[in-house]
Design brief:
516 residues, alpha+beta, four-stranded antiparallel sheet, 6 helices
């Protein structure tokens, strides 16, 4: 009888305690104040100082701070696009979360975790203003005042041990002023390489969390604890100067910076085919690196020779060895008319071992189509030596902000060859009646480079970069610079010389401005 009483007492205590907690919880929720006064609309001048101080945080920043600009157009855009953005963002969240959940749930013996409902609601975020900083660096810094008091509905169902529990997040609010930095700015779309996001102050985060239908955040003390915990965790990760870094594109590839040098030595050709009626052939080799706009390089012409020897060396600047290739064409020189093509081939740079010279014996083909039967016909062979020399890591700037800076050679640099880089930035207030299509022509040691033509502009901006291979430091050389404008009058093209000057390379300035 005593044992039976003990068992009944134990169950009675457990049931009574559980029942009392449930009754107390719902009584706490039931007796919360529900009387909400109707709001009133009146001019601010009619309010007292206490009311104005209470309303001050709700006034947009562009009203209180002249440094912040209105962005009503952005809010209007978000309002119209929000139904579509809502669907797209929710789909992306599911796609990202699904593999992560599938990987983690076996560790905790959970059967499944699924989204029963996922929507960001009908209320889009709003921007109360935006501040833009002007700097001398190649970057854009913005500080938008961001507020989102939305009505999302995120319901997650968790199944484990044959039981099902639902967790629901509602009435989400977040107020923050992030600092968004886009850098470095580039000349290719999307015109920046990285996005850096920092918080200038701890964000305000508020939300409702329902577990099994009850609002967990209504438990005394839990709401403030969770809110402060979220603020501290987010601040520890992203409060300025800490930042979230998002890589958009590789700045090295986007800015097409040089990553190495390709040395090519054309040795000889073997058993070329006769092209001339009264003689043999007058062959020469034409070399060009793909993905480059520079003119091709040529060997000398070997007259009346089917087994010519050149032993001539050439160098090319490599920007992307994974996609670039050396295109080789052999022609028969003709004094009158077009030169006859004797054969061709292509050497992919990704097939070359860095810093290892390689002698290649290439069959001359009609084209690079592997299914063309005409390629089976013998056209001779070309023997050449190639060497790809990538730049060392300490020869390339580590900081992406310094990629566009041409630095001086350090002390102790060996007196040898290298790469001369010339960047043509812009011109201002070009004068003249017909000077509205300007472009620049550079001439260095017999090599010519031209910028693109900017139409109908007296303040053109080119930002074109040119590279010249040099076998020794150009301390005694001069760069020939000409500014032209091409105009069409009476159906004929006329080229007008706007300015001309010689740039001495003995000077130490990295960037110079000239009056033309």
């Amino acid at each position: 009888m005593g044992l039976f009483s003990s068992i009944l007492g134990f169950f009675g205590f457990g049931i009574g305690t559980s029942f009392g907690l449930v009754i107390g919880y719902y009584m706490f929720i039931y007796f919360l104040p529900t009387d909400v006064k109707d709001f009133k609309i009146c001019p601010l001048v009619e309010e007292d100082s206490t009311t104005l101080q209470r309303l001050l945080p709700e006034i947009p920043l562009w009203v209180k701070n002249p440094d912040f600009d209105r962005v009503d157009w952005l809010n209007k855009f978000l309002e119209n696009m929000w139904p579509y953005l809502n669907a797209a963002i929710c789909t992306t969240i599911k796609a990202i979360a699904k593999p992560i959940i599938s990987e983690q749930i076996p560790k905790y013996k959970i059967q499944s975790v699924e989204f029963e409902m996922l929507t960001l609601g009908t209320l889009p975020p709003t921007f109360q203003g935006m501040k833009v900083y002007a700097t001398d660096e190649k970057e854009l810094i913005m500080e938008p005042s961001f507020k989102w008091a939305g009505n999302p509905n995120v319901t997650i169902a968790v199944k484990a041990f044959g039981l099902k529990a639902t967790v629901q997040v509602v009435d989400f609010q977040v107020f923050a002023i992030p600092r968004i930095t886009l850098k470095p700015l580039l000349n290719v779309f999307p015109c920046f390489a990285y996005i850096y996001v920092s918080l200038m102050d701890k964000p305000h985060v508020d939300f409702g969390l329902k577990l099994l239908g009850g609002d967990v955040m209504a438990i005394p003390g839990l709401y403030r604890f969770v809110q402060e915990l979220i603020k501290d965790q987010v601040a520890n990760m992203y409060l300025w100067p800490k930042a979230l870094e998002v890589k958009i594109i590789d700045p090295t590839q986007a800015m097409k910076k040089s990553v190495g040098i390709l040395d090519v030595k054309v040795l000889r050709a073997i058993k070329l085919k006769k092209k001339d009626i009264l003689g043999k052939s007058d062959p020469y080799v034409k070399l060009k690196l793909t993905e480059e706009k520079l003119t091709a390089k040529k060997t000398t012409v070997k007259h009346n020779n089917l087994n010519p020897e050149w032993n001539e060396e050439f160098s090319f600047v490599v920007k992307d060895p994974n996609i670039q290739a050396l295109k080789i064409n052999v022609y028969d020189w003709e004094q009158v008319g077009t030169h006859d093509k004797m054969g061709m081939n292509v050497v992919s740079l990704k097939d070359l071992t860095p810093d290892e010279p390689k002698v290649l014996t290439l069959d001359l083909l009609k084209n690079m189509n592997p299914n063309d039967r005409q390629n089976e016909k013998s056209r001779g062979q070309l023997v050449m030596e190639v060497l790809y020399k990538p730049f060392k890591e300490d020869e390339v700037p580590n900081d992406i902000e310094d990629l566009s800076i041409v630095q001086k050679a350090p002390e102790g640099t060996p007196t040898g060859g290298g790469l001369l880089v010339v960047i043509v930035h812009e011109a201002e207030e070009i004068e003249g009646k017909y000077h509205t299509n300007p472009h620049v022509r550079l001439l260095f040691r017999g090599e010519e480079r031209k910028t693109k033509r900017v139409k109908k502009s007296r303040g053109p901006r080119w930002e074109d970069e040119f590279q010249f291979m040099v076998d020794k430091p150009p301390t005694n050389d001069k760069l020939h610079v000409e500014v032209f404008s091409t105009t069409s009058r009476m159906g004929l093209l006329h080229k007008v010389n706007i300015a001309f000057f010689l740039l001495s390379l003995q000077q130490s300035e990295d960037e110079r401005v000239f009056n033309i």
